[in-house]
Amino acid sequence: MSGHSKWSTIKRAKGAADAKRGQLFTKLGREITIAARSGGGDADANSTLRLAVQKARDNNMPIDNIDRAIKRGTGAGTAGALEEMTLEGYGPGGAAMLLQIVTDNRNRTVSEVRSILTKNNANMGEVGCVTWVFEQKGLIVVEAEGDIDELELAAIDAGAEDVKDEGGAIEIISRPEDFEAVRKAIEETGVKIASAEVTLIPQNLAPLDEKAALQTLKLIDRLEELDDVQHVFTNGDFPDDVLESYRSS
């Protein structure tokens, strides 16, 4: 799950990705393969590949896995007929949902996603129905408390647009083209970065009541269990108590 700032913090603390390490590496490898296929295998010349490789390293993906994924993308390995696609719809309570997909079988993936949405009180929409809700941004999360003035100044000087204190975690938002410069500036302060990625962030939020919020969170988990689903984004505004309860479940 990506998008809403509070949930990105809760999700990381819950450690869901660690529990599915093999699946995570599969998805990271696909991102690298697609990036290498689109822009070449030289990370210095291919910024999309560079970010995908850095994300894989941040998640402790073995270097051999990274190299194989690059080779698949450049034709030195078996890449298969992988293709990217986006599916859109609305979750319980009406929150927008956008799924980024990498698949070798479009029909199978659409069928699986539609089935999960239908069984969880959600529905698939037309192409473009919720894309406008989201904006591509760089998002860096730092676990820090206390005086963050130095961190904030370093981030803003490097091009950050916003710095938010989310209670135990600082979130720095930037334009995609400033992401790497902001990340480097934060690293130079000596603060440990918990996560960093170019992602989609909702421009507006849809408030959810407790029932719809819980249904939406369970739906996101079901969707993320599919190997073909790379990322799930939503503009759902989850109540704090629901997030805290879900984290400890």
Structure description:
α1 runs parallel beside α10, α3 runs parallel beside α5 and α7 runs antiparallel to α8. The strands form three sheets. A four-stranded antiparallel sheet has the order 3-1-2-9. The chain has a four-stranded antiparallel sheet with strand order 5-6-4-7. The two termini are 17 Å apart. The chain folds into two domains: 182 residues, YebC, transcriptional regulation domain (Alpha-Beta Plaits, 2-Layer Sandwich), CATH 3.30.70; 61 residues, Integrase, N-terminal zinc-binding domain (Arc Repressor Mutant, subunit A). The chain is 45% helix and 23% strand. It contains ten helices and ten strands. It has 249 residues and is α+β, with helices and mostly antiparallel strands.
Q: Could you name the CATH homologous superfamily of the largest domain?
A: YebC, transcriptional regulation domain
CATH architecture identity of the largest domain: 2-Layer Sandwich
Any idea of the CATH class of the largest domain? Answer: Alpha Beta
Q: Treating each run of at least 4 consecutive H or I residues as one helix, how many helices?
A: 10
Question: How many domains is the backbone divided into?
Answer: 2
Shape: globular
Element-by-element helix/strand order: HHHHHEEHEEHEEHEEHEEH
**Rg, Å, rounded:** 18 Å
- Kindly report the average pLDDT value: 87
Q: Order of strands across the biggest sheet? A: 3-1-2-9
